[in-house]
Design goal:
226 residues, mainly beta, 22-stranded parallel sheet, 1 helix, 22 strands, 68% strand, elongated
Length: 226
């Protein structure tokens, strides 16, 4: 029978099957756990080999995981630092998420900060905050920070930061305020000061005059937006 476990002061949670894990104090996960719901509003450390596997996680505090995370939905409004791979259906980040392992997802939505030194793989990726990534693979990828528009670009260009991605491979990319070494996609729309060193495109490439684009390869139709 699944049970509930809660830590409001300090404590440790061992291997087991749980309905609810709730940490509002300082806690440590010392063994593999499965759960329906995992909530962290305090701080939590996940030890190596203490795999987290369940339906949903809500992080409004901070969590440092040294083990794999496998969940359906993961909401981060606080801080998450993961040293191992993550497999999720839906990742939503309004806080800060730092990854040292690979991430596999169906959908990723970021209005906060996402940093990864490994692969990020998802069908749908929408970045409305800031991202610093190595390799990003997907079907439909969007980089449109909420304050990113052509009017503000010229006035505040010196004070603004761009999302930075080394390599993007996808079917459709729509991006503003993005700096990228290499993009490979079928359809690409770039606006609001994007800086791209190399593009491989066999569909359509559209961009405005604020963008800086290096070499372009492939049989693509190019359009300069007014």
């Amino acid at each position: 029978m699944k049970t509930d476990t809660k830590i409001s002061g300090s404590g440790k949670i061992g291997q087991g099957e749980y309905n609810l894990i709730k940490i509002s104090g300082s806690g440590a996960i010392e063994g593999p756990v499965t759960f329906e719901t995992f909530k962290v509003s305090g701080s939590c450390k996940v030890c190596p080999d203490a795999t987290l596997e369940g339906n949903e996680m809500h992080i409004s505090g901070s969590i440092h995981s040294q083990s794999e995370i496998k969940v359906n939905t993961l909401h981060v409004s606080g801080s998450l630092h993961s040293e191992r791979d993550m497999k999720v259906r839906s990742l939503k980040v309004s806080g800060s998420c730092r990854l040292q392992g690979k991430i596999y997802a169906d959908e990723i939505y970021v209005s906060g900060s996402l940093k990864s030194s490994e692969e990020v793989n998802a069908d749908i990726v929408e970045i409305r905050g800031m991202a610093t990534l190595n390799d990003l693979f997907g079907e439909q990828i969007t980089f449109i920070p909420e304050n990113c528009n052509s009017f503000n670009f010229f006035r505040f260009a010196k004070h603004r930061k761009l999302s930075n991605v080394k390599n993007i491979e996808c079917t459709t990319l729509e991006a503003g305020c993005l700096q990228c070494d290499t993009i490979s996609a079928e359809n690409i729309l770039l606006t609001d000061g994007c800086v791209v060193n190399h593009i491989q495109c066999d569909g359509t490439l559209s961009y405005d005059s604020t963008c800086q684009i290096g070499t372009v390869e492939g049989n693509c139709a190019q359009k300069l937006l007014s």
